[in-house]
Automatic annotation (TrEMBL):
One Pfam family cited in the UniProt record for this chain: DAO
InterPro entries per UniProt: FAD-dep_OxRdtase, FAD/NAD-bd_sf
Keywords assigned: Oxidoreductase
Protein name, per record: FAD-dependent oxidoreductase
Domain FAD dependent oxidoreductase: 13-344
Species of origin: Vreelandella zhuhanensis
Any one GO molecular-function label of the UniProt entry: oxidoreductase activity
A single GO cellular-component term on record: cytoplasm
Gene3D superfamilies in alphabetical order: D-Amino Acid Oxidase, subunit A, domain 2, FAD/NAD(P)-binding domain
Keyword Oxidoreductase: yes
PANTHER family (alphabetical): FAD-DEPENDENT OXIDOREDUCTASE DOMAIN-CONTAINING PROTEIN 1 (PTHR13847:SF287), SARCOSINE DEHYDROGENASE-RELATED (PTHR13847)
Entry annotated with the keyword Oxidoreductase: yes
Amino acid sequence: MTETATQGARIADVCLIGGGLVGMAIALGLQRNGLHVAVLDEGDVALRASRGNFGLVWVQGKGDTLPEYADITRLSARLWPTFAASLQDSTGVDVQLQQRGGLYLCLTEQELDARARMLGKMHEAAGGDYPYETLDLKQVREKIPEIGDTVAGATWCPEDGHVNPLLLLRAMTERFKAQGGIIDNTGRVETIEPHPEGFRIHAGGDWDCARVVLCAGLGNRELAPQVGLSAPLSPNRGQVLVGERVRPFLDYPTGHVRQTGEGTVQIGDSKEDVGFDSGTTTEVMAKIAHRAIRLFPLLRDVKLVRAWGALRVMTPDGYPIYQASTSCPGAYLVTCHSGVTLAAFHEGPLADWIASDRYDPSLEVFHAERFTL
């Protein structure tokens, strides 16, 4: 199907609603499958979780109560090097992927023991195929000499890594447009009307398509019921601090602090249920900074250059929703809060599933019906 005008509407094979990290990764995968894709994006008035995240490609601990989620997380981590290389080859943009392993630093023995027990259970559930180590302070210091004396230890996973999320979004967007993709940010999608041949979508302008993929983050709450699906999502705020450029001292990402390719220091991991308030508060920023200084005392003298808040897209159990509509064939719902980690999975196997329009029993565990059973 090509983009033409029909009764005042533009046409695409697939209309994908939401131009963040999740949406653009799937859009690239659909293009790879030969589909003409239009991304309908609200523009800069949107909540933009993709521009406020921490940039981790994180494996350890993901899926501790859902082995299938651990499986797709690890699959995505394995796919990431090829994905990053293909983006650089096609756009010239280096997304700064590093996958040398990552550490989750713990300040108390109790915290360290709890994480070790969790990862141990995941190791057993995976039949022994789940790499991790529990490190004491001496072992942590061998990897990060600048670690603070009050750190009890860390858990280590060799599959962890990080990227520059802004460069990732830029690279995916450039590649999508270079391959003939359309980005329409003339307005918010208000209604989706199913009809026998597909869907008509009303936004700033109208679009007709055979398939529609909902990747609108928290906006999926209102859009999903229009195509017979459910998206019980809630916002969870995270605040992030960024320090000035400093000499390289952190070769591995951690769950709370990472050093970017430019040398700046990114600090975060707060979690707040405050509705749709994406602002910052002095109290939370102080707690974030205090923990970071305990982890890395050298940060005491580093100047902060900016801070922001962003809203995570959370389901009740924290796991994604991947679901095709049975009442409106051709409609799909995709929502998660790990858009960076899962980007390679979204561009690959998940986009292939949508493009094939075939039932995949392995994805049943991610249906939204799990919240009503």
